[in-house]
Automatic annotation (TrEMBL):
Pfam families: Acetyltransf_3 (PF13302). SUPFAM superfamilies: Acyl-CoA N-acyltransferases (Nat). Residues 14-151 form the N-acetyltransferase domain. The keyword Transferase applies. It comes from Pseudoalteromonas citrea. Keywords: Transferase. InterPro entries: Acyl_CoA_acyltransferase (IPR016181), GNAT_dom (IPR000182). GO terms for molecular function: acyltransferase activity, transferring groups other than amino-acyl groups. This is GNAT family N-acetyltransferase.
């Protein structure tokens, strides 16, 4: 596998490869904020977490890596994120399926999670590019992706059929290897100015 299925550890967050033992903690985390109610988001309902985790574990056989996001300050599972659309021969992957409990929004959790994920791809896996996809109408997610330093590549119109039958226009962003040093500096500044 191009990306190793291993834990990534920072000052504020630990990313643990997702296992079924994380289900009950993720069910509690997803209740905090009820983001599954957002029509444009792909956040699972509490009752769907077990299937969500099982599917993520199954996709690991194709090279994807899904993580439980642990807040090290409280040793609590506060969400999940993953590498997907992994293309080892072309040294590309997407980062997504990311959601957090409302209680950790505007905390260092997302910034450090992305720093760990991107550092692993660009520095350990020698990635050429990393992609981020989100619903065109998910302005919160788009703003967060742009704050990382990712650039908008374009909009894939009528890209996916949503659970409610509506068509999703997907905003596609990326960070390429030559941009990584500046993006890393930006993320480290954002993260460590909090201390």
């Amino acid at each position: 596998m191009w990306i190793k299925n291993q834990a990534l550890d920072g000052k504020y967050v630990r990313l643990e490869p997702l296992v079924m033992q994380h289900v009950s903690a993720l069910q509690e985390a997803v209740k905090d904020g009820e983001y599954w109610r957002l029509w444009y988001a792909s956040v699972p309902k509490p009752d769907d977490i077990s299937d969500y985790v099982a599917k993520a574990i199954e996709q690991a056989k194709q090279g994807e890596v899904a993580y439980a996001v642990i807040d090290k300050r409280t040793d609590t599972v506060v969400g999940t994120t993953r590498y997907y659309n992994v293309d080892g021969p072309n040294k590309r992957a997407a980062i997504g399926y990311t959601w957090y409990a409302n209680s950790v929004r505007r905390s260092p959790i997302n910034t450090e999670s992305k720093l760990l994920l991107l550092s692993n791809l660009f520095e350990s896996c020698d990635a050429v590019a990393v992609e981020f996809n989100t619903h065109f109408f998910n302005q919160t997610s788009r703003a967060a992706i742009e704050r990382l330093g990712a650039k908008l590549d374009g909009i894939l119109r009528a890209h996916k059929i949503m659970k409610d039958g509506s068509l999703r226009d997907t905003a596609v962003y990326s960070i390429i290897a030559s941009e990584w040093p500046a993006v890393r500096n930006n993320l480290e500044f954002k993260l460590y100015e909090r201390t």
